[in-house]
User: Fold these one by one.
Assistant:
Number 1:
Amino acid sequence: MKTICAWCEHEGRRVTVAAGDQPDDLTISYGICDQHTARLVSQLHRYFPPRKPAPNVPDTLTA
């Protein structure tokens, strides 16, 4: 099985994210590559900024 980045394919590229250990398996699955994951996370941070810890609460309780 081969895993292809669906976002790259939408852009006209075919980027393999992962390949299985059986080369004769022609199954295709879709995922997201590291580049598009980083882009998605940065876009999400615009709408959902990281929360700041509440005052007087130890860091171990906010992680």
Number 2:
Amino acid sequence: MGHARYKLLTWYTDLDTPEVRTLATTVDRWWNENATFIDTGHNNAI
């Protein structure tokens, strides 16, 4: 997952637009939760 995270965030920052920076920040903040879902298939949605 670490390499995928690095590639994604690098791609986002290379685009260098405010909207993409906001998306990159959100993805980075939620990375652990997303990685858990990908690994286990479980989430906290009701």
Number 3:
Amino acid sequence: MVDLLTTEKCRGRGYAVLISQYAEKNLAAAGINQLWTWVWHNNSPSIRVFEKLGWVYRGILVEVKFAGIKDFLRFKLPRLK
């Protein structure tokens, strides 16, 4: 799953949680036992979905793109308390 978007009239009804649970179940059945997500720090609705699913916040991934360089510079920051 790359993106999960719900229209305004469907928000707050638990659809994102149900779809995510379905995806988790099918990925586990396929032998995938570790998942990660990429959520903007200010995307409260998405953060709530993953909290409801029991996901654990592990840290922050920082990406920096320099002009003229093809790849991103990526580094992880530990969870801040």
Number 4:
Amino acid sequence: MPSGWKATYKLTPAWYLQGGAFEDDYDRAVRNGWNFGDKDATGAQILGEAGYRTGIM
């Protein structure tokens, strides 16, 4: 179960940039409670996107 963050920045009403980083910890699904530490992390996913939104209202 990944945990992480995402951010979006609007350049104009139509153009945007967004990105995020998410921690991989496949053992988290078998543990109970909230643990926001990265001690048991098995990797990370880093994503980015630029987009143009059509049909703006």
